[in-house]
Amino acid sequence: MSERKTRVRFAPSPTGPLHMGGVRTALYNYLYAKSQGGDFILRIEDTDKTRYVEGAEEYIVEALEWCGLKFDEGPHVGGDYGPYRQSERKSLYREYANQLVGDGYAYYAFDTPEELDEMRERLKAAKVAVPQYNAVTRSTMTNSLTLSDDEVEKRLENGDPYVIRIKVPRKEEIRVQDIIRGWVVVHSSKVDDKVLFKSDGMPTYHLANVVDDYLMKITHVIRGEEWLPSTPIHVLLYKYLGWEEAMPQFAHLPLLLRPDGNGKLSKRDGDRLGFPVFPMDWIDPGSGEKSSGYKEQGYFTEAFINMLAFLGWNPGTTEELFSLDNLVQSFTLERVGKAGAKFDLEKAHWYNQRYLRDKSDTDLAVLLQPHLAEAGISSDIDYIAKVCNLMKERATFISDMVEGSYFFNAPKQYDEKMIRKKWKDNTPSMIQGFRDKLSSIGDFSSANIDIEFKAYLESNDISMGEIMPILRILIAGVTSGPSILDVISVIGKQESLNRIEVGLEKIPTLSID
Ligand code: GLU
Question: Among 198, 217, 267, 347, which one carries the catalytic annotation?
Fold first, then answer.
């Protein structure tokens, strides 16, 4: 088994947009495959037509592309083990269902929905906590174990609706070895006779999943914890189909929890918790309702992936910044925890900030330019790059830097609260003095402006607090932002002198009480 090439699959059902937990499952599969020099496969599990959602498969492919997780095989890239959509593999499964029936590991069941309800009611009345179709109850139902062979034959020939159920042994320990959880032992009395195949010719999840993992030579099944209860059925199927030797290793990933630790982060959380749960925007084809995505909110792929990787895994060091390639180098399933991982919005912001700061000013400028255009500002990349250089320390997202619109336009309004607080009778003369000084400076670098500014304060016995806030208001209109002397240097001498002049005229005419 150890000589087998590592092959893992991400196997979503196209029942809606991919949730960030699903992206993390895909990511861990990718990281594991790549760390082993193996293959990462996309398989679309679309056997349940009633839950099919238009556009979901395209969304999944696009979202994972945005994340940089490239598949080696899949419906959109092909491969030697296709087709990669279960609906296109339909004809394949019947043979295995028949084999199981022939070998006595599965049976036909003809029970009507009413008969199934009746059984559940009967068991509830008898105080059975979890009524199940199982090793005990199947002997009371309408199936090929209770009917004569002739009767079964007749019903099948008649085209009566049926399902094929797995015959779970009554008393047996089913043992599953999980890479993350160790041995998981489940008693067969807790497992019901799951439906494997339906008379419409469609397999259920359990049969299709196991058959495809086998046929696609999957070596490791890495999936969410919610699939752990299904695993005993899968283990039985490997055994009953004679594939025990080829059974993949299992790794069930911890849940993603809400920030307060109260429950699982679910698709239904949408934007309710103040952050997206989807990688990209999703518009529900039925209701038209929009849920926001990390991409459109301005997260960088690298930040999103780095943040997700740490929700359930850690490298065992204090290092936190990992590119996708670094993650591939460091990732092991052994370092994935069992306990649920809490989503932390501040951490997500922190990652984005870090990746933003690491970009060159020119790269940032290229990204900021369209946001500026939306705000009606046009400028050349070199100038925007200077702005980014000053704004990036404060920005979490590219769009935050639009706040620096005063680099491009003189303020139209002034922060009146600050004026009320800081504007004194001698303010205009202090500012005017500095303006005169500015107009005489030859070297307009921010370092030189800083020297001249300090010298001006010192020789006139003016404190920083007396002049700085008003100077900022005159230049930028607002009180926040990078050093105003840096701003002055970037917007240039003439523009700075103009703004001061205009402000000194305008502000005394404002009706500020
Ligand atoms: N189709 C299942 C899902 O939607 C796959 C579970 C598995 O990986 O076995 O997640």
Answer: 267
